[in-house]
Amino acid sequence: xxxxxxxxxxxxxxxxxxxxxxxxxxxxxxxxxxxxxxxxxxxxxxxxxxxxxxxxxxxxxxxxxxxxxxxxxxxxxxxxxxxxxxxxxxxxxxxxxxxxxxxxxxxxxxxxxxxxxxxxxxxxxxxxxxxxxxxxxxxxxxxxxxxxxxxxxxxxxxxxxxxxxxxxxxxxxxxxxxxxxxxxxxxxxxxxxxxxxxxxxxxxxxxxxxxxxxxxxxxxxxxxxxxxxxxxxxxxxxxxxxxxxxxxxxxxxxxxxxxxxxxxxxxxxxxxxxxxxxxxxxxxxxxxxxxxxxxxxxxxxxxxxxxxxxxxxxxxxxxxxxxxxxxxxxxxxxxxxxxxxxxxxxxxxxxxxxxxxxxxxxxxxxxxxxxxxxxxxxxxxxxxxxxxxxxxxxxxxxxxxxxxxxxxxxxxxxxxxxxxxxxxxxxxxxxxxxxxxxxxxxxxxxxxxxxxxxxxxxxxxxxxxxxxxxxxxxxxxxxxxxxxxxxxxxxxxxxxxxxxxxxxxxxxxxxxxxxxxxxxxxxxxxxxxxxxxxxxxxxxxxxxxxxxxxxxxxxxxxxxxxxxxxxxxxxxxxxxxxxxxxxxxxxxxxxxxxxxxxxxxxxxxxxxxxxxxxxxxxxxxxxxxxxxxxxxxxxxxxxxxxxxxxxxxxxxxxxxxxxxxxxxxxxxxxxxxxxxxxxxxxxxxxxxxxxxxxxxxxxxxxxxxxxxxxxxxxxxxxxxxxxxx
Amino acid sequence: xxxxxxxxxxxxxxxxxxxxxxxxxxxxxxxxxxxxxxxxxxxxxxxxxxxxxxxxxxxxxxxxxxxxxxxxxxxxxxxxxxxxxxxxxxxxxxxxxxxxxxxxxxxxxxxxxxxxxxxxxxxxxxxxxxxxxxxxxxxxxxxxxxxxxxxxxxxxxxxxxxxxxxxxxxxxxxxxxxxxxxxxxxxxxxxxxxxxxxxxxxxxxxxxxxxxxxxxxxxxxxxxxxxxxxxxxxxxxxxxxxxxxxxxxxxxxxxxxxxxxxxxxxxxxxxxxxxxx
Lengths: 725, 277
Known about the structure:
Helix content of chain B: over 70%
Helix content of chain A: 25-40%
Oligomer: heterodimer
Shape of chain B: elongated
Number of helices of chain B: 10
């Protein structure tokens, strides 16, 4: 006989009360409230327990409640950041976390500073912190390395510029558009987190697979060795800034000098051997070219020069020019130096004549028998006198005012100090006192008479003694037959002569050069400092300076009282004053064509100009029709990144690659001389055969070594791109 | 000879192929998203969460059997098994086959692993253990085991009491050795790893008593030995059926915790995601 009892549960009913008795069944379900008891067993002997189902339900509720409570407590605790963070940051971001303390999540995540409600709201809306999205929060720290304007655009490039570059891609490749576009927003911006997945510890944040690169690039190919386009003219996106013909140097000049042509003599390693940088002028060029440069500047560059005047013709024509040095009289002769021409053209009367007569005009061109020529000559003489008067009274400020008037742009104090380089007002005063001692009175009187009558009216004929101070320090008073004024101009004392006689040209004069020249303020001969890229000079590759460079030559401004000139003699290579005049001219729009600057352009920025600068330093034309002189051989702007990079260092570990010609094949038939004469930097002609992909694929192929896209290509390049083509 | 754990039939092959095909499609989608710079974690995460919610809904199926077109329990069980097994691959895709290293994500992953592994364990046991039970001489309802155990103890006690008038050997043996064995459930070690060692020991001891018993008392000894065998079978049922029921405590008990943490994970990843919204 079998008793039937309900399953003992919390809510179980007394036996046989609610459920009643049931017929015996061989089957039993777990949730069946009845359990058959053997005969003789008292239900009270068994400890009452809830059913398994009920206990399981209770446990489930308990677990759920515990989980909710634990989450609430942990999220409300000071350790919520540590609990919720999905993983450690990379070491690069560790300082940021350390500095922000408890609110560190908010430094990157716009939503982190809010409550759970704001988190939920942020699930559906754009979360911003102080108006900044999460990617913009990244840029708060990375704005130094990425161009802020286009930081989130593909490649950090202006979309229009990118479209222009895309248009340069062959049409066949361009037509192969990707099936799906990457996740960009309506401004064609892509979030930082698309590629940079943080909170994965030490995993490379910049890791990008080839397939991901090709998600945007329609021109798809299998791998570097299969399908990657040829290099074409890479890495030469532009011609080199320094004109250098490898072919002629290797095949002729070095042979003539009986020297070995070694690449490493000019191409030096940086500290990591990653970059082959060019050696300095002193290390690589000076040994052969220093003398040429010094010789080219030995005649100097005149700022002021008094022309020869045909005083008889002037007097015959009824003009008066006032006092003029006797030694500067005779027939009309003498050129107007380009610098002086530039200053004179600030004078409207002189400007008209100089423009009319053209850039090659000289006083020699005046015909003494033609009254018009004589009148022009007189006008130019008075313009010259006014110029000298201004220089004597205002000093360098007069140069600045006139240059600004002529060139049409502001001249900074720094630029002015460079172009005059220690040439100050007293220098001009001394020159005027020496050459035209009555100039001040003449100009005052002329100004007075000009207000009453024609400005070319003869001056008062009261006679004058002109005193000349010659470079030897001796004072000579010469009676000038045509000068009618007697002026009480103080004669320069011998003591003053001594001061001015600190003449670094003494040695030169002793050697028979430039007699009568007196240096006004010598320019210190500083070691040529060419701005170099920010790379560390490896000590081992610094070459000793050639002895020729160390021998200083006299240089600076000097006055010649025999030729009545104030000139500048460059110190040699990288002379700052000469550089500043060249930059001044190059900065002028259409400088080679403008009457004001044409002569100075030819005199300085030409292969035969003073200093021979243009022989090696190429000229680039800017979009505003001005020019940039490439003084620096290598130009490495940290803000500029190329799409393609190459490090020599790892490659030079291979013995066969230590020979440069393994990759760089010099082609004797290729001359690049013509490309340096143009002002279009994109005209690239190399002495070397183009680099081919074969140079790389012998090693960089799948199964041998890394040949991923990012091995050679940068993603972030910025708005300024090298080699965009 | 080792028996095959799982017998493959047409239904298993069909369901397995369907699950594999669905996973292949999902893997292809994830690969396509990855190469197109689309964050596939959202895709795999939502699929995984959907699967977990669907698996949890299996319990609701039991609660609403009256709903039309709800399908049979066996159909739902098959879905539960194959969707549940598929979540392993989806989970792997979601975490990119790496071990989570944040406390919260590790907790979530641990919950998933416990629920999923308990499910696999349950699946394995429901395929294996019933065969072991059918090898036993009688079928026993798990809920009746406490009463049956008491019944065996009562029978043994009555047998001993009936025989103790002539000698106290059986009574002392029952009091010292047998009552403890018959009246109480087995320890945790036995529940984990059932063994007949104690049964053999107890029967051997009963056999040793024969020399101290009179001829008429020996059938009592044999009766006690029979009760020892039945108690051991009862303990074996208790251990095996207990396993079949206890794994659900882990599987179901943690399922809702998993859902709670998963929903919070969903909120967090959206609130802290770095994309443009």
